[in-house]
Amino acid sequence: MTAMTPRERVMCALNGLEPDTVPIFDFIYSRTLYKEVLGRIPESYNAEDVMRCSERIGYDLAVIPFGGFGGLSLDNQDNGSSYTDEWG
User: Fold this and answer.
1) pLDDT in tens, 38-73
2) Cβ distance 33 to 39 under 8 Å?
3) Residue 76 burial by Cβ neighbours in a 10 Å radius (0-12, 13-18, 19+)
4) DSSP 23-78
5) What's this model's pTM, rounded to 2 decimal places?
6) Taking CA 10 as the corner, what is the angle to CA 50 and CA 52, rounded to the nearest 5 degrees?
7) Radius of gyration of the chain, Cα coordinates, nearest whole angstrom
């Protein structure tokens, strides 16, 4: 059997079939990882850099959630109504 493309591998798995290998993906949010893989840290979380980073790592799939990352920390200065993520 010839190696599947990332798209074929993901679609095969989503359709309940057996791909040549398990599709690999991750939610890329680490500023350190961006620096290591892209050579820079993006100014803000964006789909273009997620795709570039995923492709260079060799992932089969990139996870890009609507609205960006949901991991937030509470800003105490605003009576608890404001949150800040790692990107500011």
Assistant:
1) 999 998 888 899 999 999 999 999 888 766 555 555
2) no
3) exposed
4) --EE----HHHHHHHHSS--SS--HHHHHHHHHHHT-SEE---TTS----EEEGGG
5) 0.66
6) 20
7) 17
Give the tokens for residue 28: 């890329």
How many C-beta neighbours within 10 Å does residue 51 have?
A: 14
Work out whether the CA dihedral 64, 9, 59, 56 comes out positive or negative: negative
What are 1-35's pLDDT values in tens digits? 689 999 999 999 999 999 999 999 988 888 899 99
- In Å, what is the CA distance from 53 to each residue of 2, 40, 64? 26, 11, 12
